Amino acid sequence: MASLTKAIGMNASIVALAAGVILSTVGCASRKEIVIGFAASMSGMDYMLGVEGRNAAMLFVDELNASGGVGGSKLRLEVRDLASDDSRVPIVARELVEAGAVAIVGFYSSSSALAAIPVLQEAGVPIISPTSTADSLSGLDDVFFRTIMTSVRDPLVLGKQMREAGQSRILFIAAAYNKPYYETYLKGLEPLVTISGTIRYSTLQDIDYGLIEGLARNPGYDAVMIVASSLDTGTIAQKLALLGLRKPLYLSGWAGNEDVITYGGAAVEGALLVHQVDVDLSKDTTLSVRYRAVFGREASYGAIETWDSMLLLVEGLRAAKGDARKLYPALKGIKSFQGTSSTITIDSTGDARRALYMKRIQNGHFTVTGRAD
User: Fold this and answer.
1) pTM of the prediction?
2) Confidence tier at 327 by pLDDT (50, 70, 90)
3) Where are the beta strands (DSSP E) in the chain?
4) Which tens digit of pLDDT belongs to each residue from 90-115?
5) Is the pLDDT of residue 29 over 90?
6) What's the pLDDT band for 10 if we cut at 50, 70, 90?
């Protein structure tokens, strides 16, 4: 309980600090501005990535504007909260278009990205997503770009690990509200292992742990795969451990920040996941130094991947010479760019290729155990 209270208090302080940065960013807006939209869930059950991303985006804009902006024009960030509700996505997308956004960074869940694409395709406004990885977003000729790879390889790597460990029967637990994302994992695992049971939930209160206890007896399972946010994943792992249902645990990349350890504690010790960010490689970057100074904590993968998205956007703006009409073709023309810690390549349909890491939670910390590419 003490850890939970501390975590909530820390989040409140981060929000307060971020609000101060927002006011600073908006208050310093110049007459000649380039408006950038930012859309993410910063409240509700799926707030973590959005808060981290917003913090990083605002720090990026402050840093860029302090150095002169893009071609002499300052950037202004228009921030909108999806409130963990995908029905708000079209409304927020239209608001940002009407506010003059030349591009929108955000839509951190795959389900929200899919909901945004039709609106922004019609408006001709590019989307750059830091964390939407569902395979259903791949290979499309649309306004959607991402600086993160599809997760399609993640379950293949994890499934191989399961089989090598002799874990052939897997309990699959997933957040139903991000269906395109969990389906990427489920489809990848099904040819490799036997899914002993599938539990989908809309809220944590919906999870039927009695059903899980029944599945543990018949047909039984050797390991658990959770595809959910870091908060949900940690909470579910704790509950399973308290019920005596603890088994080897596999996580999705969505859960790859410190919140899963805060909420999961010893129940997530030893958990394995595949991830696209080695946080240690970014500790001395401008982002990480500024993030620690302003927010009093390390920049997590959500912040790092947002910084990467902002880097891609600015490269596109510079190639377009600040002309919004030329931004989309400029982004399409970028084949690679330097991210926070490595070169990220972008294919002709706006999909990224980058490093892939194996991580395990050991002694209360994420440890990179190797590369999976």
Assistant:
1) 0.87
2) very high
3) 33-40, 74-81, 103-106, 127-129, 144-146, 169-175, 194-201, 223-227, 249-251, 272-275, 336-338, 343-346, 352-353, 357-362, 365-371
4) 999 999 999 999 999 999 999 999 99
5) no
6) very low
Instruction: Give Cα 25 distance to the centre of its chain.
Output: 24
Encode pLDDT of 30-59 as tens digits. 448 999 999 999 998 889 899 999 999 999
- Contact of 268 with 249, CB cutoff 8 Å: yes
User: Residue with structure tokens 């002694």?
Assistant: 363
User: Which domains, and CATH codes, for the chain?
Assistant: 2-149+280-353 (3.40.50.2300), 152-275 (3.40.50.2300)
Predicted confidence at residue 2, as pLDDT, reads 35
Task: Over range 220-236, report the average pLDDT.
Answer: 97
Distance CA 37, CA 150 (A): 23
* Residue 265 DSSP symbol: G
Encoding tokens for residue 83?
Answer: 């409130």
Torsion of CA 246, 250, 256, 261, to 10 degrees: 10
Separation CA 132–CA 141 (nearest Å)? 16
Q: What are phi and psi of 125, to 5 degrees?
A: -105, 120
Backbone angles phi, psi at 320, to 5 degrees: -85, 0
* Distance from the Cα of residue 72 to its chain's centroid: 31
In sequence order, the 6+-apart residues with CB closer than 8 A to the CB of 361 are 260, 261, 268, 269, 270, 271, 367
Query: What tokens were used for 27?
Result: 């208050």
Q: Which of 64, 67, 56 is nearest to 130 (CA)?
A: 56
First to last CA, the chain: 39
Q: What are phi and psi of 256, to 5 degrees?
A: -85, 35
CA distance 77 to 207: 38
